[in-house]
Amino acid sequence: MPYHYAGREAVLELQGSLMNVRIGTDIICTHTVVPGHGRVIREKEHFAGLLAEAMRCNAQQRKTSRPLFAMVTPDVEHRSLAVYDAFADEVHL
User: Fold this and answer.
1) 3-class state of residue 78 by DSSP
2) CB under 8 Å to 11, separation ≥6 — which residues?
3) What digits encode the pLDDT tens for the residues 25-61?
4) How many C-beta atoms lie closer than 10 Å to residue 37's C-beta?
5) N or C: which end of the chain has fewer CB within 10 A?
6) Is 82 helix (H, G, I), strand (E, B) or coil?
């Protein structure tokens, strides 16, 4: 059934080879019953908008929560390249 009904209590009604999914008095979707054990059929239409909604929720969550970890940069001495030039003059191969 469409993702935005996740977590809601639904009633499955079998009528011949059709299965209706009902919430309250509304039939949310109807599917053909597929014979076989453990078969899963996914309807792409039921997932339409899910990625955009998840990304929107994640973006909102980032605004209100602190990061799980922080990148720590080491203290590094900054020096002129002339220092290395001086050492290079002393090295003879």
Assistant:
1) coil
2) 21, 22, 23
3) 999 999 888 888 877 778 888 888 888 888 888 888 8
4) 4
5) C
6) helix
